Amino acid sequence: MIEVIELRYQYPASQSPALIAPHWFVGEGEFVLLAGTTGSGKTTLLRSLVSLVPHFYGGWFGGRVVIGGRDTRSHRPADLADLVGYVSQEPEAQTLLDRVADEVAFALENLGYSAGAVAARVEEALDLLGIAHLRERPIESLSGGERQRVTLAAALALRPRVLLLDEPTSQLDPWAAESVLEVLRRLVDELGVTVILAEHRLDRLLGSATRLTVLEKGQLLADGPPVETAALLPDPPVLVQLSQALGWSPPALTVADAKRRLGRHTFPSRAKRYVAGGEVVLTLEGVTCQRGDRVVLRDIDVVFRRGSVTVIVGRNGAGKTTLVRAALGLEPVQRGRVRLFGYKPGEPAFRQQLRRVAYVPQFPGALLLATRLADDLELARRSRECAHDAVQAMVDMFELAPLLSAHPFDLSSGERQRAALAVALIGTPDLIVLDEPTRGLNLAVKRRLVKELRQRAARGATVIITTHDVDFAAAVADRILLLGNSTIIAEGAPEQVLGESFAYAPLISRIFGPAFLDLEDVLHVLAAVSPPLD
Amino acid sequence: MNGALWLAWATLMALAISVTRNPFYLALALLAVLTVRTAVDTTRPLGRAAPRFAVLAALVLIGWSTVVNVLLAHVGDRVITRLPPWPVVGGPLTFNALLYGALTGIALATVLIGISLLHAVLDRHEALRLVPRRQRVLATTLAIALNALPTFAAAARDAEEAIRLRGLAQQPLVHLRMLINAVLVRGMDYSVAVAETLEVRGFAAASRRSQRTRLGSLAFLAGGVIAIGGSIAGSGIILALGLSGLAVGLAGAAFSALPGVRALPWPWSARVTALLLGLIAAGFVWALRDPAADLTYSPYPTLHWPGFSLLAGASYLLLAAPAFALRGGRS
């Protein structure tokens, strides 16, 4: 189905090749996972398969890419639209029209399908992704995750033979992500569709993939069945790390496999890891927010204290972003009271208090205001009145040294996320609010972020995070708020709210039970188990 | 009302207003456009409010146009006062210039308010349907243009928030530079993404440029050049030849766009509105030929009372027709 022969590609403004792939072949009905750190060439490989490279991005292109018998050198992306479905990294920028149904129908109309066929396929795609209820909704009223499902539906409506997906579940809640993966499995198994998917969060995907291709610095590092190549990943996923720790070979690639190997052992629970609770920093009392006729938040009562890390989870469109924005006075509140450091939004002193806040919005690029990343970091340093080594610490933590002279426009999605985190976290803000901070981050950076946030909380900062990444949430949080039906439906320690939940349980909890939230918990307990498990 | 009708109304409104400075007609046109604006704001056919900035910008425009014209155009028989012989602005300030400046401002403001309504009423899907299938560049440009306003507004809002949260609001110059940078970067980002999305969604798929398309484009280009040449040379025959070429090219494009027009919803209210717009267009053509209608009214060099034709007046007032064809919610 796909042949990549002697491919060598360099972006126009770049000094070095972004991708070198001597030979890479993918057969019909394969489910290929592309893995690698940020900037390893995953996105460029996908772009070259859909012919955006070189037709759209220009640059220097050598070799050949043939997809379904069509050579991309002589076929523009539009000429491949009936064969290849493509969903890029940022769904926010991929919607063109006003209404969900129109967006899904657009590509079908372009390819000349009859009105009846368009209507049928739109319904089918909306049903497949569980978004039929959004059919008539204006796109601008959708949450990030809802938009992501709309762009997926637009690609699926064409019933492509090849589906190229760049981090398609990065903004989806666990249920939605699982249902998307289920759809992909069915497309592969029942219809023989070839799926190529680039991701950072591999744990839930390894069991479904037929192949794992690892890229590093634009080159193919490894390629083969996941059981063989997963161990070669520069940053192995949790299941592979667990397998390595327990000496399992080949590694377990699914929760079911891990449980089977583990047998019927029971483990002692670990004590609650964190104790939170200093003075009150932020209060929301009976807060109700509305967008048009739709109530997004209803009667929210919640308090955030010094030294605590609170993670807000909930399905797409549950109101997580609205809650944190309302807390910072960025969203109008129809009813109720907000108090930040004791001040109400609208009071003159409230604006001053915002300088004590580090906020990374859902669209992290919005935080980058200068023409070079280095200037942005310097502005943040001066604004927070801290020493120069504070900048260097952030540069090191988020691996930003090669990007300091880059314009924000030239950064990839993952790089923008890291840059925005660095800009926000410079100095010692008293309140840290991060909206979906792990989008596009690799495991190593995520681990460093967890450590940094825990340390800051221990020094007295208040941390509030919204995320769909339940493994990250389990690792960092000492309190979880579960939003649903516009209100807080559960609140408590991660092992209670996440561990005992079916949808939001972290991977380790699914294997070892609710008392275990991350690999560290497991290793700590297993060290005391004798004889060792095998 | 569908996308084609809104575009037709906006074009007709802009052309009709641009050909006159007659205060009676301008007043009627302003009244009609404000009626449509009120109806759009009330019914919100796409769920979006009519943009408020256009009204503010229109007020600024009227004031600016009036003041600049009074200071720069020292012509007319009704002198208000005289300025010393300063460069450019020195000399008599006339009531004629004040009136002409205000009328020009009102004309521009009315067009601005009318065009800005497209943001609230023009369905992007319908607008893109109107682009001939082969015109990928035109579609990309249109898609970017249709999304530009909300994109820039969102970028400016996000940047404002970021500036406030990062404590940079106290430095006005830095503030402005960052705001502009953020808006431009987001605009570029979005434009690239829109163009990419149009490509991968198959816009202009398998539309190798046909011989007929090439001939149509050639006729359009050649017609334009010949028409300009004819105008310069003052030759009616050459001008007619050029205009014929332009007409052939335009007819080709219109023919290519026809399937998109047919695919739009055409309920009876849309058909009646289309008929009304046709009648209004005919009324304007008639008024242009009627000297008594006084469309070309000017307060220079002597101030006089403008003429008025009932037919022309009715045509301007009928620009309010879309207000009565609107329905709440999306059709």
Architecture of the largest domain in chain A in CATH? Answer: 3-Layer(aba) Sandwich
Mean pLDDT score of chain B, rounded?
A: 86
Proportion of helical residues of chain A: 25-40%
Structural class of chain A: alpha/beta
Mean pLDDT of chain A: 87
**How many angstroms does the end-to-end distance of chain B come to?**
8 Å
Q: Supply the number of helical segments of chain B.
A: 13
Q: Which of globular, elongated, flat, extended, rod-shaped describes the shape of chain A? A: globular
Distinct helical segment count of chain A: 19
Q: Order of strands across the biggest sheet of chain B?
A: 1-2
For this structure, the CATH topology of the largest domain in chain A is Rossmann fold
Largest interface: A-B, 58 and 49 residues
Tally the structural domains of chain B.
3
User: H/E element string of chain B?
Assistant: HHHEEHHHHHHHHHH
End-to-end separation of chain A: 41 Å
Uncertain parts of chain B: none
Number of strands of chain B: 2
β-strand amount of chain A: 15-25%
Given as residue ranges, the uncertain stretches of chain A (5+ residues, pLDDT < 50) are: none
Secondary structure topology:
The complex is a heterodimer of chains A (534) and B (331).
Chain A: E1 2-10, E2 19-26, E3 31-35, H1 42-49, H2 52-55, E4 60-67, E5 70-71, E6 84-87, H3 100-110, H4 115-128, H5 144-156, E7 162-166, H6 174-191, E8 194-198, E9 211-216, E10 219-224, H7 226-229, H8 238-246, H9 255-262, E11 280-291, E12 294-305, E13 309-314, H10 320-327, E14 335-340, H11 348-353, E15 357-360, H12 373-384, H13 388-397, H14 413-425, E16 431-435, H15 443-458, E17 462-466, H16 470-476, E18 479-484, E19 487-492, H17 494-497, H18 507-512, H19 519-526
Parallel strand pairs in A: 3-8, 3-9, 6-7, 7-8, 13-17, 13-18, 15-16, 16-17
Antiparallel strand pairs in A: 1-2, 1-4, 4-5, 9-10, 11-12, 11-14, 18-19
Chain B: H1 3-18, H2 23-43, H3 53-72, E1 79-83, E2 91-94, H4 95-116, H5 118-121, H6 124-129, H7 136-165, H8 172-200, H9 211-233, H10 236-263, H11 268-289, H12 310-317, H13 321-325
Antiparallel strand pairs in B: 1-2
